[in-house]
Amino acid sequence: QVQLVESGGGLVKPGGSLTLSCAASGFTFSNYYMTWIRQAPGKGLEWVSYISPSGGSQYYADSVRGRFTISRDNAKNSLYLQMNSLRAEDTAFYYCVRFYYYHYYMDVWGKGTTVTVSS
Amino acid sequence: QSALTQPASVSGSPGQSITISCTGTSSDVGGYNYVSWYQQHLGKAPKLMIYEVSNRPSGVSNRFSGSKSGNTASLTISGLQAEDEADYYCTSYTSSSTLVFGGGTKLTVL
């Protein structure tokens, strides 16, 4: 079945770096836009970034632009989020989500991975 | 990228109908028919309930419906059931080619 499984979360100090991964299965990964959504503890959902099927186009929320980089490896059916210069406010649950471009909705969500930024 | 405005909470009794509003601007909600709604039960990943303002994905109950007027989109749940108790989020495409979420609404079934 269609599945997204995130990994790579953990505890990191402010200013540190972390890379999240998302393994996709059950669908033709290279045909779809993909996106990262995050949710701070007890807070609402926040869109982080999305990437085109080829990886050639990326868009970012103002809050992460210049610090986070989204990428993908279609041969490995994998999506990534490299996070640099991490701040306490980046502490959140990060979801990998399949994104229908041109219709702008998200239909398949992973279970998420936790990132904690703390000294 | 200001968040869309949703009421923090709504409530209703079983069998009743409730409506959750989602207010944005002409640069997001009002400018495009790309509003979607997500249901999130405690500790779970969100689930798509409505896309493109009023379309229901396969498998979503027809008790859920969506609409839009101007800069405000709405999600209506009719025949409220206990299992509908959850957080609900709207999201919209924006003129900057980004996405923006609402702050979320906690639905309590009394």
What would your notes on this structure say?
The complex is a heterodimer of chains A (about 120) and B (about 110). With about 120 residues, chain A is mainly beta. Chain A has strands at about 5, 10, 20-25, 35-40, 45-50, 60, 70-75, 80-85, 90-100, 105-110, 115. The mean pLDDT of chain A is about 95. With about 110 residues, chain B is mainly beta. Chain B is built from no helices and nine strands. In chain B, the strands form two sheets. In chain B, strands 1, 3, 4, 7, 8 and 9 form a six-stranded mixed sheet that branches. Chain B has a three-stranded antiparallel sheet with strand order 2-6-5, with no helix packed on it. In chain B, β3 and β4 form a beta hairpin. The radius of gyration of chain B is 13 Å and the shape is globular. Chain B starts with 8 loop residues before the first strand and ends with a strand. At the A-B interface, β5 and β10 of A face β3, β7 and β8 of B.
Descriptive terms for the model:
heterodimer; A: 119 residues; mainly beta; seven-stranded mixed β-sheet; B: 110 residues; six-stranded mixed β-sheet; three-stranded antiparallel β-sheet; globular
Give a topology summary:
The complex is a heterodimer of chains A (119) and B (110).
Chain A lengths: L2 E5 L2 E3 L5 E8 L7 E7 L5 E7 L6 E3 L7 E6 L4 E6 L8 E9 L4 E5 L3 E5 L2
Parallel strand pairs in A: 2-11
Antiparallel strand pairs in A: 1-3, 3-8, 4-5, 4-9, 5-6, 7-8, 9-10, 9-11
Chain B lengths: L8 E4 L5 E6 L11 E6 L6 E4 L13 E6 L2 E6 L8 E8 L5 E3 L3 E5 L1
Concise account of the structure shown:
The complex is a heterodimer of chains A (119) and B (110). By secondary structure, chain A is mainly β.
Q: Kindly report the greatest chain-chain contact and the residue count on each side.
A: A-B, 23 and 27 residues
Radius of gyration of chain A: 13 Å
Task: Note the gap between the termini of chain A.
Answer: 40 Å
Topology pattern of chain A, helix = H, strand = E: EEEEEEEEEEE
What fraction strand of chain A?
Answer: over 45%
In N-to-C order, the SSE pattern of chain B is EEEEEEEEE
